[in-house]
């Protein structure tokens, strides 16, 4: 368990808790706070026992909260992506918006969503493109730029990866579906 808290291994969150005798604070194994001396640490299997022993929850990792303590940051990133999908967005822009480094943002976002911010943004853009293909007469090229892609070749490649067909095939399939 000591190794897991030294590695900040989030896979063990909820399986045990680390309590520091000198501060009377308990944490998740993944907590990024400064590590205590090993002699000051006790391990508990559940929250009830650690709180009964007189420890309070860490404000940084929020072990008493059922969801990940990073869910707020991830929601903030997703909201930013949804609201700015038409613009050219760099990882640095997102990182600046949420107040963390680009490296940390990408690692955390991938840990929480299993996707990078870029692939998440691409899926938002493809969903918007699919909606426009289905409901407008805009050309594929117009839709490409309307949803924020910088180049048609990237638009076609990403669209095919997400929807398993080209934009034209998607539009034709949707038209056929509506007709009958």
Protein architecture, described:
This protein has 180 residues and is an alpha+beta fold. The chain folds into 3 domains: 2-57, DNA Methylphosphotriester Repair Domain (3-Layer(aba) Sandwich); 71-116, Orthogonal Bundle (Arc Repressor Mutant, subunit A); 119-179, Homeodomain-like (Arc Repressor Mutant, subunit A), CATH 1.10.10.60. Helix content is 53%, strand content 7%. It has helices spanning 2-6, 47-52, 71-84, 91-98, 102-113, 117-135, 140-146, 152-163, 167-179, and strands spanning 17-20, 25-27, 41-44, 56-57. It has a 4-stranded mixed sheet. A hairpin with a 4-residue loop joins strand 1 (17-20) and strand 2 (25-27). Helix 3 crosses helix 6 (117-135). The longest helix has 19 residues, at 117-135. It is elongated, with a radius of gyration of 23 Å. The relative contact order is 0.08. The model has no long low-confidence stretch (mean pLDDT 90).
Instruction: Give me the CATH superfamily of the largest domain.
Output: Homeodomain-like
Largest sheet geometry: 4 strands, mixed
Strand content: 5-15%
Rg for CA atoms: 23 Å
CATH fold name of the largest domain, please?
Arc Repressor Mutant, subunit A
The name of the CATH architecture of the largest domain is: Orthogonal Bundle
Instruction: Report the oligomer.
Output: single chain
User: Could you list the spans in which at least 5 consecutive residues all have pLDDT below 50?
Assistant: none
Protein name: Adenosine deaminase
GO molecular function, one term: sequence-specific DNA binding
Keywords: Activator, DNA-binding, Methyltransferase, Transcription, Transcription regulation, Transferase
Domain HTH araC/xylS-type: 75-173
């Amino acid at each position: 368990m000591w190794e897991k808290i030294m590695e900040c291994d989030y896979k063990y969150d909820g399986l045990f808790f680390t309590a520091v005798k000198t501060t009377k604070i308990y944490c998740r194994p993944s907590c990024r706070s400064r590590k205590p001396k090993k002699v000051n640490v006790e391990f508990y299997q559940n929250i009830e026992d650690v709180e009964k022993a007189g420890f309070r929850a860490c404000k940084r990792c929020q072990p008493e909260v059922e969801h990940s303590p990073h869910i707020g940051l991830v929601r903030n990133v997703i909201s930013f992506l949804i609201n700015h999908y038409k613009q050219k967005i760099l990882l640095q822009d997102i990182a600046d918006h949420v107040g963390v480094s680009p490296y940390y943002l990408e690692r955390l976002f991938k840990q929480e969503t299993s996707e990078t911010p870029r692939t998440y943004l691409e899926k938002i853009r493809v969903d918007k493109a699919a909606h426009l293909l289905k409901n407008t007469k805009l050309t594929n090229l117009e839709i490409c730029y309307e949803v924020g892609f910088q180049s048609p070749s990237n638009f076609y490649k990403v669209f095919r990866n997400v929807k398993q067909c080209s934009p034209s095939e998607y539009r034709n399939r949707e038209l056929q579906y509506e007709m009958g």
